[in-house]
Amino acid sequence: MKRYWQLIKYALASGSSFLLDIALFYLFQLLLGERLGAGADMICTVLARILSSFFNFNVNNRLVFEHEGGYGRALLRYYCLAVPVMLASGGLVTLLDRAFGVSAPILRTAVKIVVDTLLFIASYLIQKLWVFSEKK
Asked: What count of other Cβ atoms lies within 10 Å of the Cβ of residue 95?
């Protein structure tokens, strides 16, 4: 039962981080999207993810995985995972945007929701088995 409770806590933490990330992405699209041109999707993804990922790390570290190991070690491992996930998210959103001609911020945000949902399970497993692992 503990394993399921951890997965439920992870889903709730990820959900709140996801909402923060999407809200920030949308806000950055509204504020910067037209000014940034072709690089808008990636830049908005990076800005939103920087802020939401730090929130997510801290929630996962203490509440989800109840990690009592070194904060710095876990933080470094978390960002070794978060950066490739962020790049995959931004890259796939950009690729799909260009492939299907998505231009409105709300449509780009919908594409991002689908992409990030697919990255969710892999990220959980890597965090559980490596980022917050107590094994040396």
From this structure: 13
What pTM, to 2 d.p., does this model score? Answer: 0.73
Query: Nearest to residue 96, comparing CAs of 112, 117, 83, 120?
Result: 112
The phi-psi region of residue 78 (left if phi > 0; otherwise alpha if psi is between -120 and 50; otherwise beta) is alpha
What angle separates helix 40-59 from helix 71-100, to the nearest 10 degrees? 150
Nearest to 93 by CA among 79, 83, 78, 103: 103
Alpha-carbon distance of 70 to 26, in angstroms, equals 34
Q: pLDDT for 14-40, tens place per residue? A: 999 989 999 999 999 899 877 887 788
Q: What are residue 69's phi and psi, to 5 degrees?
A: -80, -165
Contact status, residue 88 vs residue 42, Cβ threshold 8 Å: no
C-alpha to C-alpha distance for 34 and 70, rounded to whole angstroms: 42
**Total number of residues shown for the chain:** 136
Dihedral angle, C-alpha 9, 92, 102, 26, nearest 10 °: 40
Residue type, 66: E
